[in-house]
Amino acid sequence: MVEQTLRRADARPQFRVSKRGKKAAATEFTVYAPAFAEAQKDLYDKDTNPKGFIPMCMAENRTVGAEIEAEFRKVLGELAADPNFPRHELCDYGDFSGMHGFKSAVAQAVSTHLAPPEVAVKALEASAETADQYILKEEKMSPQDVLCVTNGCGSAMNMISFCLGEGDGKDCFITTSPAYPVFATDCALEGNVVVKYAVKTSADDEFKIKL
């Protein structure tokens, strides 16, 4: 009976993965990703786990966590009470590149926070109704300029590499060093676009680019 079961197991077809699937599975996300995942099982807490881990290898801004949580609760409460609840946009297929209202918010945020410092400060100090007047027209982004909203920069880099690169390994992105190491994976794994660290910068001179 045992021998027959083993023979049946041996006769089962093996699952096959494409070459690019095997390449992706064998590609290390980062050298610190396994350590980060392991640390999640034993995170530091001042009161309950003072000997736990404090992962410092991932960019997690926890200093504004309470503010973000409060804003989430406020927005979700307003959304739940809204008689014009956007059921179609949230529950059905809508604009695959992002909701128009969200694009408008992204455009406003980019126009404000990535504007020249003196413009950004005035816009941030103003009310929502008057913030626009402090943003220069030539630098203001409109919702139509937001081609697609992605979940994180990595997804955006992956899409850009796939769309702009030919996939033959001859295209590359040139950037400075030090740089976020996972960009190399984001660009190369599917788009096959190599990231070249061509210019080395330093904190000593505020990471100025010198060619």
From TrEMBL:
Residue ranges of every copy of the Aminotransferase class I/classII large domain listed in the record:
135-208
Q: List, alphabetically, the InterPro entries matched.
A: Aminotransferase_I/II_large, PyrdxlP-dep_Trfase, PyrdxlP-dep_Trfase_major, PyrdxlP-dep_Trfase_small
Superkingdom as given in the UniProt entry: Eukaryota
Gene Ontology terms for molecular function: pyridoxal phosphate binding
Q: Name any one Pfam family assigned in the record.
A: Aminotran_1_2
Q: What is this protein called?
A: Aminotransferase class I/classII large domain-containing protein
Organism, as annotated: Perkinsus olseni (Perkinsus atlanticus)
Q: What is the lineage of its organism?
A: Eukaryota, Sar, Alveolata, Perkinsozoa, Perkinsea
